[in-house]
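ugh finaly. both done.
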Amino acid sequence: MPEVEQRALDTCSQQGASYADVRVVRREDESISVKSGRVEAVSLGESEGLGVRVLVDGAWGFASSSVLNTREADRVASEAVRIARASGTALRQPADLDDRAPARGHFATPVEEDPFALSLETKIGDLLAADERMRAVKGIAFTESLFHAQRERKSFAATDGSQTEQEITHVGAAIEVNAVEGDELQRRTYPDAGGGYQAAGYEYIRSLDLAGHAEALAEESVKLLRAPQCPSGRFTIILDPSQLYLQIHESCGHPTELDRVFGTEASYAGTSFLTTDRLDDGFMYGSELVDIVADATAPGGLGTFGWDDEGVEAQQVPLVKEGRFVGYLSSRETAPRIGRKSGGAMRADGWNRIPLIRMTNINLLPKPGKSLEEIVEDTDDGLYLASNRSWSIDDRRLNFQFATEVAYEIKGGKRGQLYKNPTYTGITYEFWRSCDAVGDERSYRMLGTPNCGKGEPGQLMHVGHAVSGARFRDVQVGVGKW
């Protein structure tokens, strides 16, 4: 174990901590933005530091520093202990951690082409090539192309003998094209509005073929200006993976976070309608076709790792099984309160933040039988919605509204008329109970959310969602004006 980590743990134990862990995190970030044919920004950043978390008489303390030496390790450890003792004066319920074997080992994201070793000229050139093809379409007002890469090298050690090393690499890219006529703007994005991220190397960016999709994307944004408004009423809808992933994020991922259920997140982002009595009474979250799992082992997921930030090994945790609500995203402290072991969902945004319960990869499992296109062919009358444009959901994650960039009419099993400004609304469990078809492996895609916010002070987390598209019956569709 490195001397700085060992020194912090020794100091914590000597000053009365019953448990302590220390994370040393080194993060690299690179971002490139191209707007309307010009390189708008290139950003390169690095940070490193250590965070020390302690448990003293059932109360938590946390402190951090960007200075990595033994003297500073002593100071930070002592500060964390002092904070824990101060927190203990207002303690309502002592923390009780579940047992686990000491975490040991190494994990690294599989990377074929290191995004940080690749020249800036290559990455900028790929963005400019896509941008040029978008701008070549008549009627386009402005365009944007984005690239982002992040790498974290993270070591974790704890007083229970845990010692792990992880190297996690994430990359993402997207193109956006905007057509304007009068006071109306229509936008199209690819691969999705925020979903084009994976745990991988630059090989993933190449697989997106941004330039290859640019022209068709631009043409559709122009067509949207003259397309009719999406009709209102009760419809059968099919959600493309580019929309379904965010539906899962907001109405399935967040309400299953156990700290929300216990109210410790209430002051910032709300609680959850999934109270613990619903775990006991077999609450039907969705139809029997709905199987949702939190899977921190899924290849390519932004929520994939070897161990979470309190040393719990990555695992698969069922949340909804055959429509029935069966589990939560949990921690070593919250899981014992419902008689379970931690599901390994404690994650921190860097070295200077305390871990919180966060999503890993919240996936809607595919169903064998029909591809997404075959589900369309099996639909006589309905709407196909793709690419999120905006969303809103209440603080218990029950009532929601989503807007998508496009909708296509489905008649006789074929996609036809293009509609603009589609919206749909619903109540979470009623919506998921109306699901009567889920695509198979052929349309199963891993998408990412790189900016999931939670906590005070705020933390942004990278989370993943694998989906294949699904059909929902009798959904309220309305018209929005943007």
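ok and the 2nd:
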Amino acid sequence: MLKFLILDVYPSDNWRLVKDTAGGYGTGNNFGNSFLSKLMNFFVSKSIAMPPMSALYVYSIIKGKNCIIEYTKKILPQEELKNFDYIILPSSIIAHETEIETLNFLNRLGLKVFVIGIFGNIKKNIYNLDNSYVVKGEPEKFFLENKLEKKNLDNFFSNQNLGLFENRGEFVEILDDLPYPSWDIYLKKYPLRNNFLSFNKKSAIPILASRGCPYSCFNYCTYPLQQGRKVRYRSVKNIINEIIHWKNKVNTNKFVFRDPVFSINRKFTVELCNEIIKKKLNIEFLIETHLNNLDNELIKLLKDAGLKIVYIGVESVEEKVLKDINRFSIKNDAQFKIINKLSAEGIIVKSMYMIGNPEDTEETIKNTISYSKLLPNQLVQFSIFTPYPGTPIFKKFENIITTSKFENFNQYNLVFKHNYLNEKQINYFKNYAYRKFYLHYKNIGIVFRTLKSFFN
């Protein structure tokens, strides 16, 4: 019986690191060096935790093929590592150097390593060592379609067979073919947290309804690289069955939908919500979506189905800044109306902004920060524009990148030579933005509620 180990390594930073976000590149919430920012670093690092979903899907697939599979975030002693036939290494940009160091170590031991994840695909030449094989596209497809036999799998590590899988499709077309991720096994060793307000008492199970995103922000966004631009859906029945499964298995009613744009298909969203209500599942869930996909009727239905928190991308208040990065957004007055309706329904809104965009100046950043305080949102996120390798926009920046370390590409560092702003100014505005928003009198209540939820 073959033995596999998923070795999911991270650098030892003192802030939240999640590989599943930013289309599988990952993000690391380093809010800054002010007292408030350090407090937020601590709070968020203790409040949010999840692995790359693909790794847990792969776990379930391998387990279902009668193989031994384990998951760990720590490098095991050499004698234990050698007990495994194959190592599976999830790749990311936020842990890249740590992953490569680990990969070299495993290579020296002569261990065969399957590298999974989109960043491994983008930087295949770096991850592809003598004893490693970079799995193309969605790794679930590879492990679903291949016989997990030593003779077959060893072929992928011989030079003459490197192209063996390259001509097949990259994506799982029928998402219902995927088993449920092995969250019950994962929870025996690690937490699944999303401890914002009402999400603090139980494990928050990550779940997918769809994959893929067709929006124009693929110019700088990595989700289309990971999942493609064609949207693929699970059946409503399959999603409902998974929700019921986890409610019974791990005794939780908290779910975090990891779809890039949850409500992109209104008909599908209505059908799913109606089924949740009909089945009286009594769940609470979090989504990320585009304001263009929400209206009063759908907001009310989402609330009745259990929506508690919604993440929406605003990015900037300045039209010229958005146009430069090819970001589509609805008009500011429409943003206000939709966010106000969400808030009026008791749904927590987390608005996400980017500062340090190529056309940002001190004035445009200040305008965006001021705008964030005018909107009726309760939580905010200010990250820094990051040109990612592999995206179309990266070609404009590859010759002005100012860091040699990919782990700095965590959405909270300036990594290129900006036309108008330097690193010191960007870091100042990062601290300033959080201070101006969360210490504003109208937001003090949400700060206390959030801190209180942390101790419940």
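summary for the 2nd one i guess: The longest strand covers residues 307-315.
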